[in-house]
């Protein structure tokens, strides 16, 4: 019991130290780069939600394919549902008539076989690594050193891409970006996207394993015990997967409406990669800086 209390106290102290460090960084950014302050706060919220809900795209798909566990996949689909509505509203405000062109704040990737190749390679790599970008990062923060090897592999792969980007861009720059609102309008695009997400959610719910729900005791607990239960649910136990998806979807909408940038990890890792390439004196395509920073 004494060892458990000491461990618990160590965790509390570490948490307080991390919170103080986050506040100090926030104050430092607030005075020099106000825009980065926004990204810092959203990044903290993003990381907390991802870690507490154990959000990982690879785990969601592999768990459903191997074990018929669709809880995480339903959470991701719920987040996509919320994000689709929010982003449609934001984009509609920028371009009410989509035939006139793609919104300036949107990035629509050129459509071609390279997406299939990239998706296949990414999927295989993340399966071997045991998690996607998000899973790799929060596992590193939890002390899983093997995820550092996965991160090193990601940086090497991105370095090869950046170093050879002109060769890839010769093909990709010739492809056309396909943006649904230009073809079927805002209403049709929204209905089609939400319809597909809803059908996928139903398929996952229908073919996923049915867990047995346990009945909770109706006994009224003391206030201290109830507060302790709430604290454990927030800090120690994993959050509901559906809640994580909805929170991430709402957070993504909020960030895009505030800073015209969605949540993401690959862009920052690309910056790390460019720093490595510059240190090795290898040429790489320059990356855009954060506007207003």
How would you briefly describe this protein structure?
The chain is an all-alpha fold and 293 residues long.
Describe this structure in words.
Helix content is 72%, strand content 0%. It is built from 12 helices and no strands. It has helices at 2-32, 34-53, 57-67, 71-94, 113-129, 133-141, 146-163, 165-172, 181-207, 223-236, 241-259, 266-279. The model is unreliable at 212-219 and 288-293 (pLDDT under 50).
List keywords for this structure.
disordered C terminus, 0% strand, 293 residues, 72% helix, globular, 12 helices, mainly alpha
Could you give the count of β-strands?
A: 0
Major beta sheet summary: none
Query: Order of helices and strands, N to C?
Result: HHHHHHHHHHHH
Task: Report the mean per-residue pLDDT as an integer.
Answer: 79
Structural class: mainly alpha
The share of residues in extended strands comes to under 5%
Q: Approximately how much helix is present in the residues?
A: over 70%
Shape: globular
Rg: 22 Å
User: Terminal Cα separation, in Å?
Assistant: 50 Å
Low-confidence region ranges: 212-219, 288-293
Number of helices, counting only DSSP H or I runs of 4 residues or more: 12
């Amino acid at each position: 019991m004494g060892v458990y209390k000491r461990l618990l106290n160590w965790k509390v102290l570490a948490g307080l130290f991390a919170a103080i460090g986050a506040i100090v960084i926030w104050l430092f950014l607030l005075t020099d780069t106000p825009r980065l302050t926004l990204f810092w706060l959203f990044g903290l919220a993003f990381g907390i939600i991802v870690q507490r809900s154990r959000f990982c795209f690879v785990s969601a798909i592999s768990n459903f394919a191997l074990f018929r566990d669709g809880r995480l996949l339903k959470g991701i689909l719920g987040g996509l549902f919320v994000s689709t509505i929010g982003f449609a509203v934001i984009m509609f405000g920028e371009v009410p008539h989509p035939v006139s062109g793609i919104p300036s704040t949107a990035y629509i990737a050129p459509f071609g076989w390279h997406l299939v190749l990239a998706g296949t390679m990414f999927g295989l790599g993340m399966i071997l690594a045991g998690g996607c970008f998000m899973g790799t990062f929060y596992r590193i923060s939890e002390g899983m050193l093997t995820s550092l090897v996965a991160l090193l592999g990601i940086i090497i792969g991105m370095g090869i891409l950046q170093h050879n980007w002109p060769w890839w861009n010769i093909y990709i720059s010739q492809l056309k970006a396909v943006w649904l609102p230009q073809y079927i309008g805002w209403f049709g695009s929204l209905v089609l996207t939400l319809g597909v997400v809803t059908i996928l959610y139903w398929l996952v719910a229908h073919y996923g394993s049915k867990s047995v729900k346990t009945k909770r005791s109706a006994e009224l607990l003391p206030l201290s015990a109830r507060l302790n239960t709430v604290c454990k649910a927030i800090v120690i136990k994993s959050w509901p997967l559906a809640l994580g998806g909805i929170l991430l979807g709402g957070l993504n909408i909020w960030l895009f409406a505030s800073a015209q940038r969605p949540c993401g990890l690959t862009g920052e890792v690309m910056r790390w990669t460019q720093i490595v390439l510059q240190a090795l004196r290898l040429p790489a395509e320059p990356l855009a800086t954060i506007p207003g920073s």
